[in-house]
Specification:
Blueprint lengths: L3 E5 L4 E5 L1 H4 L8 H34 L8
Antiparallel strand pairs: 1-2
Length: 72
């Protein structure tokens, strides 16, 4: 809609209404949903960071050995 009108009293005074007042505002995000979103993002971050760290340790350990894999 381009714009709307709000009637006051007997309809004599017609006040223009801004477009953003006509659109329904989104309900605020519940705290549980926001917390779950944060936990999911942070867990993905820590999982990727720790996996990269341990893979780096593994490869540096393998490269430091002269024979590669050593079977005891």
């Amino acid at each position: 809609m381009a714009g709307g009108f709000r009637y006051r009293g007997e309809g004599i005074d017609i006040l223009p209404v801004a477009d953003n007042q006509l659109k329904r505002k989104k309900p605020p995000q519940p705290f549980a949903s926001a917390a779950a979103d944060f936990v999911t993002r942070s867990s993905f971050f820590w999982l990727s960071a720790s996996s990269r760290f341990f893979m780096g340790l593994l490869f540096s350990d393998l490269l430091s050995r002269k024979n590669g894999f050593q079977v005891a």
